[in-house]
Design brief:
Blueprint (H helix, E strand, L loop, with lengths): L2 E3 L7 E3 L3 E4 L4 E6 L11 E5 L4 E2 L4 E2 L6 E3 L15 E4 L1 E2 L9 E3 L7 E2 L3 E6 L5 H13 L7 E2 L5 E3 L1 H5 L2 E4 L2 H46 L7 E3 L7 E3 L3 E4 H4 E5 L16 E5 L14 E4 L6 E2 L4 E4 L7 E3 L3 E3 L3 E6 L6 H9 L1 H11 L9 H5 L2 E4 L2 H44 L5 H5 L1
Parallel strand pairs: 5-12, 21-26
Antiparallel strand pairs: 1-2, 3-16, 4-13, 5-8, 6-7, 9-11, 9-13, 10-15, 14-15, 17-18, 19-28, 20-27, 21-22, 23-26, 24-25, 24-27
């Protein structure tokens, strides 16, 4: 296969017989969608939103979850047919820019929302190939050159985007490339699904092992007794059932207006600990600082902070500074419970689930001071507490490593998937040989 240097900067070397053109040459028609009205039972249709894009498989979720009333007068040019492309025109954000394109591969009559445009592919193009071509442009961030943002919402300039130059193979090659990528990406997606399922199983196993250690102890042969608490179940017979109130006190933080916070440390400044600090510890890079906080709202490395709202039940320790109103500072009183076991207890999935239930099911759960203190908990002898805490911490660390390894594998697979798509749609892979 003879090749030439492409005049399109992102394509590199392409087959000689491919045609240099613009994206608009692949479009027969384009029309923005319609949001319609609340369902009325008579003119209702499925309406594809940006949230219904399957960005991994570059298609639409099935079934489409949203239905809207769309009168006949608004349907002209907007009814989706199998093989149409859907272009995200508004939305996006810093981590996920606007401009994703997916294929409508369902047979169900539907429309798309007003943040999406229906794109009918030109007669000499294959829409499945085009979705991969658009995915390559998106992955290379070519799409971002056509983004306009005057408010918090990104808008894609359709004319500017469709003016982007591309290299287009003949229709028969488009179909061969699409078929090749369908097979290869499906295999990669299958591997990603298995990795994601593995992470779910690891998280479930981690939670089960920690719950077992913190609420049942480390010796499976000890006699057990009914705790009298439904969500705790049986506990070792020599353990005590008590309440948080017995061994800890709470103090609540304060809320500092953003204009009174600083991005740099200073001699009279303390770190201001917010929800963003959760699970970040001392290595967190996004600290803000406030000046002269009172001793009441300052915590030390030995204190425990627990989110009462926003991320209810999440726990951090080992930080020094002033804490936000969204946290409780849990201060241990006396010596009946070690700090290490208290942290393990508060992080125990069974305890966190109970605290979330107490916080309520509103949009923003908020844990009440007294309800937390009245929560029943188990108290092992001091001689067992540190061993349980160390065991729980080791479980956390071991499973965190396994999860990170799986997440890294997923990232590598996604990068390979993107690279494979870009190579195929620019002719770097001879798909005829691959098929053979």
């Amino acid at each position: 296969m003879s090749v030439r240097e492409s005049a399109v900067e992102w394509c590199g070397v392409v087959p000689t017989h491919w045609r240099t053109t613009r994206l608009k040459a692949t479009v027969a028609s384009i029309k923005n969608g319609v949001w319609g009205d609340e369902p009325d039972g008579e003119t209702d249709l499925p309406c594809v939103r940006v949230a219904d894009f399957d960005r991994q498989r570059l298609c639409v979720v099935d079934p489409i979850p949203t239905w809207r009333a769309v009168p006949l007068s608004s349907r002209k040019g907007r009814m989706l047919s199998r093989g149409d492309l859907l272009l995200e025109k508004s939305g996006g954000g810093e981590g996920q820019p606007v401009g994703t394109v997916v294929l409508y591969d369902l047979s169900e009559p539907a429309v798309c929302s007003n943040f999406v445009a229906r794109v009918e592919a030109a007669a000499d193009t294959d829409s499945s190939f085009l979705r991969y071509l658009h995915a390559s442009l998106y992955g290379l961030r070519i799409t971002t050159r056509s983004i306009k943002q005057t408010t918090g919402i990104q808008n894609l300039d359709g004319d500017a985007y469709l003016a982007e130059r591309i290299e287009l193979p003949p229709l028969v090659e488009q179909r061969a490339i699409a078929s090749f990528l369908d097979r290869k990406t499906a295999a990669i997606d299958g591997l990603i699904e298995k990795k994601e399922r593995l992470i779910e199983l690891l998280q479930e196993k981690r939670q089960a092992l920690i719950t077992q250690a913190v609420t049942k102890g480390l010796d499976p042969t000890v006699p057990m007794k009914d705790s009298g608490i439904e969500w705790l179940g049986e506990i070792p017979a020599h353990w005590e059932v008590t309440r948080f109130r017995r061994f800890c006190a709470l103090s609540q933080g304060l809320q500092i207006p953003r204009e009174e916070r600083f991005n740099e440390p200073g001699p009279r400044r303390a770190r201001y600990i917010t929800v963003q600090s959760l699970n970040a510890g001392a290595d967190f890079n996004g600290w803000e600082y406030i000046e002269n906080p009172s001793a009441r709202v300052r915590c030390t490395f030995d204190d425990i902070l627990m989110a009462r709202t926003g991320a209810t039940g999440e726990v951090i320790s080992g930080v020094d500074g002033a804490f936000h109103n969204n946290f409780f500072k849990v201060q241990l009183q006396g010596s009946s419970m070690s700090k290490e076991y208290a942290v393990a207890l508060l992080r125990c999935p069974r305890v966190k689930e109970h605290l979330l239930m107490l916080a309520g099911t509103t949009t923003i759960p908020d844990l009440n001071h007294d309800e937390f203190l009245d929560t029943p908990v188990v108290l092992p002898p001091e001689s067992e507490q540190d061993a349980i805490a160390r065991h729980a911490k080791k479980i956390e660390d071991d499973f965190e490593l396994l999860v990170r390894m799986s997440e890294h594998s997923i990232g590598v697979l996604r990068e390979y998937r993107q690279a494979l798509i870009s190579a195929a749609v620019t002719g770097k892979i001879d798909v005829s040989e691959q098929a053979a």
